[in-house]
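tmp note - BTAD domain-containing putative transcriptional regulator
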Amino acid sequence: MAVRFRLLGGVEAQVGGVAVDLGHPKQRAVLGALLVEANRLVSISQLLDRVWGERCPKRGRETIYNYLSRLRTALRAVDDEVRLERRSGGYLLAVDEQAVDVHQFRYLATRARTVRDDQLALELFEQALRLWRSEPLSGLDTPWATGLRITLDDERLAAELDHVDTALRCGRHTELFPSLSARATQYPLDERVAGQMMLALYRSGRQADALEQYQGLRRRLADELGTDPGPAVQRLHQQMLTADPSLAASSTLSVPGPGVAVVPHQLPAAVAHLVGRVRALAALTAQVESAAGVGTVVITSVAGTAGIGKTALAVHWAHQVRDRFPDGQLYVNLRGFDPRAQAMDPAEAVRGFLDALGVTRQHIPPSPEAQIALYRSLLDGKRILVVLDNARDAQQVRPLLPGTAGAVAVVTSRNRLSGLVAVDGAHPISLDLLTEEEARELLVRRLGPGRVAAEPHAVQQIITQCARLPLALTIAATRTAQTGFPLTTLAAELAEAGRRLDVLSADDPASEVRAVFSWSYAALTPSAARLFRLLGLHPGPDVSAAAAASLAALPTPRMQGMLAELARASLLTEHAPGRYAFHDLLRDYATEQANSTDPDEERHAAVHRMLDHYLHTAHAAARLLEPAREPLPLPPPQPGVSPEHSADRERALAWFTTEHAVLLAAVNHAAATGFDAHTWQLAQSLATYLDRRGHWHDLATVGNAAVDAAARLADSFGQPVARSIVARAYRRHGNFDDAYSHLRLALDLFGRAGNLPGQADTYIELARLKGWQGPHAIPEILTLARQAHALYLSCGQRLGQAQTLTAIGWSHARLGDYSQALTCCRQALPLLEEFDDRERQAHAWDSIAYAHHYLGQHSQAVTCYRHALDLCRDLGDRPLEADILNRFGDAHHAAHDPDAAHDDWQHALDILTELGHPHADQIRVKLAALNFAGSALGARARPAARGL
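out:
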């Protein structure tokens, strides 16, 4: 049976109704913080804040790691489908959201608001509200938990009020009295609650009590706020005074006023195959319902790129809710981005609406201002829906907005219409690309389930090549349906370089991908259009404002204005603060425009600037990760390039993490476009980050690209450096023979060039490689370390000497000469601290701790291991962290602390498993033995050898 998680009360987990032991209250709090963000990344700093707030203990991070390790074990034992995964930047709990009561509550409430069957909606609301047991996350008293409880309580109240409205529509007014009375007492100034109470009383034959309820509300509002009840409650009061028959039990709370002579129904036909968009549809409905009884007009702005399905969404939703607008539905295409005609003047749209509302031409005033006033007067008090499609900007929309409560306006535009949001209070909805599942469903609906199921690989290729853009998928499906060709044929055509936009053409320009994009592009200012074209030359999945500034050779402040223009036009998406992206079809279009508009030399110069930006920024960041590293002899960046500067190690690591995919793409792009020096130099600047974070496949990829590029240049320094990068990746994967071959080649190349420091570095790498080959290789490791030490001495490199002293000390420790090991490593430490070489400091403290362990000095060993662990966590070196945790567990075990040993080994195993490290099985053996025996493994059991 699957596990179910409960947060609407205390943090609990149950399997088949039986509670699961989740451990310490703070450990349950960690689980709660992850479950609230189910399937989304949560950083360690967020976990610390959510669990302890400002009262975080000194060793909070270490405690969090222990809690996470124990939670992973507990969750694995109850449900294999629930996975606690460590990702770059934090942890993610992969879980079915319907198994978490908070997310199930939100899903049920949203679905209840969107279904058209009141009885079904009532059942859904009741299911949602039954999930509540007590105060959410009870027992957790951090500011984050308090804020979340307030949010959830507001959502609960909204669901309760919506439930009451639905129950009133179903004629269940009598049974609502107890809960309505209690709520009216709790919220004496809430007009919606008062209106619900009035209606329940009235329908129960208690007209006098209903009128008194209104008078009491009026008195309280006047006394406490100095206001009168809003229009909705006043209208309900007037209807009760006149015994309006529309207040019968089958009616809703909001009742329309007198109708106009003509009730317009202007909606176009709904799209037959709308897929997905559940959240957007729910948001549209929620905006309407949240305004019920408040007395405000609802304006919603739906924005998104060309072909994303804005009109389809708006019209589909309008048909779904048309029964809520008995006074009519108005629709106009404002032609904001139509190349065949100018954008519609608002006065023209108003005259069309007046016609639809039954105003004869002789009664239409002559001035546009008077026409707008008449239009709004006709809408006053009406429950009417106005759909303003394909708007150019806020100025075009404002004259068409109704000004009365009960009216709803939905505006669609390729522009974000920020002014409409800021000034007019519009609620923004931004449409994104379809998900993989939604894209597949669109093809199923167009082509049939059998055809899609028969060619799954081709379907996946089509979805990828169409970038999950609804318009592109629709054209592709139509093309396949018309030709009857296999899906593999279409997939192959789409995959052919440079042909996607040709394949996704249609007879009608309004439904051709290239033409639809061109309408947005044509509306740009010249500088923004140039930037759009240049961004088509950028190889990464997204781009920062700083990198875009270097690409275009413009100052960052000016660049930000142009990026904002592209984002407003939905040609770019600011998916994270300061980071911009567009989907692959827009990238193809931008590249097409660049190739046809900008000369070759300008495009080449832009690519050169972009690569310079990433190379110089990465090189500076790498030096912060390794302050003692020798700088590469880079030429100065091109004019117009403004490299980014990280203030410290943490920010450098954060920059690498953010730009990871972009930097890999930049290496490949440099190699493919003839920038060979950039290729190997970027690879060298990336190597430390990739190695420390366990991205060893990426390390091998950039290393091999560097080997080829440096060979083409015949670069005497780049070639051995590139070989060393590849060797490091092979070593991490356990491919020792290939690693050795590359290192011997590097040693030979450094030797031919007379590069003594390079030779010494390579001897150290060879010693690291030998470190994984077992105890028999220790004498050879010692010899290699001494060879490196002699070379560093000869060229006066003090840091290299300190590094080799650590390696010599480690070798002595492995040979059993612990006193000599301590002497060498302690001699190395002051030099390593002088150069701020924290990686080698961590190695030195690790070696010192190892020696203390085998001298039987367990408390000293624990202290030194902890110091080494702090240093390596500060570096973000995950393989080294696992390595030290492994030996830290040995020390705890020798000190007769099996629980601490278990936590250390488990945490090491988690890291190695996530990295796909070949030595994860060695940790599993230790844990299995510990769990089986429940006692010591043997204080003198030797740990596995490690890399130096």
